[in-house]
Structures are given as C-alpha cells and as structure tokens.
User: Fold this.
Amino acid sequence: MDDHPNATLFREGYAAFGRGDMATLGRLLADDVVWHSPGHNALTGDYTGIPAVLALFGRTFELTGGTFKNDVHDIVANDVHGVALVTVSGSRDGKSISTRQAHVVHFRDGKLAESWLLASDQAAVDELFR
Assistant:
C-alpha cells in the first residue's frame, strides 16, 4: 500500500529536518503555518509564518549543538490530518533526553499548515531547553 501524499510530505519534512535542510522545509510549509511548541522552556510558544518556524528549528539545533534528532516510528495521514510517532533525543549542558512524542498536524493545499507536539515527558523536554 502506498503512503498518502501528505504522509510522504510529512516524511520528507522529517528527513529535511534531520539534514538541517531549511530550504526544503520552507517549501513544505504553508506561508501562514502555525507551529505550537508546548511546555515551559526557551522554545515554548506559537510560531506563525515560515520565517518564524524555520528560526525555531534553527534555535533547536543551536541550543543542542546539533544533537537534536527525531527517530520516526510511524506516520499516518489523510487529506487534512497527519500524526507522526517519534522518539526525540538531544543533549545540552550535560543533560540529555530521549522521549516519545506524537506530532499532530493539519495539511492544507499540499502543505503543512499547523502543528502540535505532544511529549510523553514534557518535564524532561522543559529541563533540556530551560
């Protein structure tokens, strides 16, 4: 069975993120994308627009010295929604995490339009990015 085109887009986004390929990521995002970054840390907030979201991604790499990774376990998607099950890991200032997340997104017109990250251990994520 072939992946839905939005599942393929989602996978392409994770691959681009892993390479630090911001140009490809920018092409996959809707111009008015909204990225909800949960928790109580330096990355918490709602980021609107491609430049803001790409800056968030860059800041994530910067804070972790490039150690932040997403290990994708599975992705499902349809015309409107997608969910990725991932394990995120990274280290900073002698601290490290490895925690599971669900990444829920909305698609519009073949682009990722809105994103929510749901961590199994948000306190660990907050501690890393405090």
User: Anything to note?
Assistant: The beta strands are 29-37, 45-48, 69-77, 81-92, 95-108, 111-119. DSSP finds four helices and six strands in the chain. Residues 5-19 form the longest helix (15 residues). The longest strand covers residues 95-108.
